Amino acid sequence: MSDPIKVLVTGAAGQIAYSLLYSIAKGDVFGKDQALILVLLDIPPMLPVLDGVVMELQDCALPLLREVIPTDKEEVAFKDLDAAVLVGSMPRKEGMERKDLLKANVNIFKSQGGALEKYAKKTVKVLVVGNPANTNCLIASKSAPSIPKENFSCLTRLDHNRARSQVAMRVGVSADNVKDVIIWGNHSSTQYPDVHHAKVSIKGKEISAYDAVKDDAWLKGDFISTVQQRGAAVIKARKLSSAMSAAKAICDHMRDIWFGTLEGEFISMGVYSSGNSYGVPDDLIYSFPVTIKDKTWKIVEGLSINDFSRGKMDATAEELVEERDTAVSFLGV
Questions:
Q1: Nearest CA to 43 among 106, 97, 90?
Q2: 3-state secondary structure string across the chain
Q3: Residues 6 or more apart from 141 whose CB is under 8 A from it?
Q4: pLDDT tens for residues 146-185?
Q5: Fewest CB atoms within 10 Å of the CB: 16, 29, 36, 57?
């Protein structure tokens, strides 16, 4: 068994983390022979709850889990990290302006980015989950200038999995028979779930998603809005935000970073935009189709983009530019 790696989860007393930590600790993400030290960060009022989470992890008696470190201190949490999953963020409260939400989160992610810069390994892989995830990820990256921008990504895999599942259910196949759906842009309701390049396997034969679904109006209408609004639909039904599915998507995302994407397949993740062929502005964290090999992602270039897609890709980019500019204006404060 290899030496333990150190993995941080923030917001560790929250409900996403509660669904996530067992999967990480039992080897679903970093491998079945990779020992782990789990570091759990949360705010001081949550420390008693965190103690309960630690007890449960101990009680799972997992062979890979060498140590669990609960803390409310960044200098402890970010020390010598190999991977960080930043789940904790300021949630939107009723009557809160988006600008106020951005400001509160800039403070959190500026501080955590600074702690990554100061304490973590320069090779650390950072996944930002806490919303607004794209912009929080950008702020963390800007606050850790000596860690390569490529090491930062944000979660749009949940949207990707939602899109994949919607197509699979519509066609009547299992989700693993659908591949190459794309989430473009922001992890918000402006995101663009795109199946123009997606493929569906039916009885061993691969055909385009449009040919498989045979309902263009649905693919350009209800399919898109269902994926865009799915988080809100879950909250309305459960009175809580997506946790089980978010944790599963985090596992998928980090496992792909660690072990690479499947040959001949791409996935969606929010990554740093600089000089891509899709006309997406630079200096954003924007969700693209990517492949991953040797822990390095690469944007899938050269996919044809029609006018319908172009309009939706531009709209979500505009929202991200606005978010970025507002957030960056708070950085100096």
A1: 90
A2: CEEEEEEEEECCCCHHHHHHHHHHHCCCCCCCCEEEEEEEECCHHHHHHHHHHHHHHHHCCCCCEEEEEEECCHHHHCCCCCEEEECCCCCCCCCCCHHHHHHHHHHHHHHHHHHHHHHCCCCCEEEECCCCHHHHHHHHHHCCCCCCHHHEEECCHHHHHHHHHHHHHHHCCCHHHEECCEEEECCCCCCEEECCCCEEEECCEEEEHHHHHCCHHHHHCHHHHHHHCHHHHHHHHHCCCCCHHHHHHHHHHHHHHHHCCCCCCCEEEEEECCCCCCCCCCCCEEEEEEEEECCEEEECCCCCCCHHHHHHHHHHHHHHHHHHHHHHHHHCC
A3: 113, 126, 147, 149, 152, 272, 285
A4: 999 999 999 999 999 999 999 999 999 999 999 999 999 9
A5: 57
Sign of the C-alpha dihedral computed for residues 260, 266, 271 and 275 taken in this order: positive
Q: Report pLDDT digits (tens) over 26-80.
A: 999 999 999 999 999 999 999 999 999 999 999 999 999 999 999 999 999 999 9
Pairing of strands 192-194, 152-154: unpaired
Please report, rounded to a whole number, the percentage of residues in the chain having pLDDT higher than 70: 99
Query: Exposed, middle or buried: residue 27 (CB in 10 Å: 0-12, 13-18, 19+)?
Result: middle
Q: Counting beta carbons within 10 angstroms of the beta carbon of residue 307, is it exposed (0 to 12), middle (13 to 18) or buried (19 or more)? A: exposed
* Cβ neighbours for 325, distance < 8 A, ≥ 6 positions apart: none
User: Which position has the token pair 């039904």?
Assistant: 237
What confidence tens digit (pLDDT) does each residue in 256-272 have? 999 999 999 999 999 99
The two three-digit tokens of residue 169, written as one number: 């259910």
Give the residue numbers marked as catalytic: 187
CA dihedral for 90, 93, 97, 98, sign (positive or negative): positive
Q: What's the CA gap between 329 and 70, in Å, rounded?
A: 33
Phi/psi of residue 296, nearest 5 degrees: -125, 125
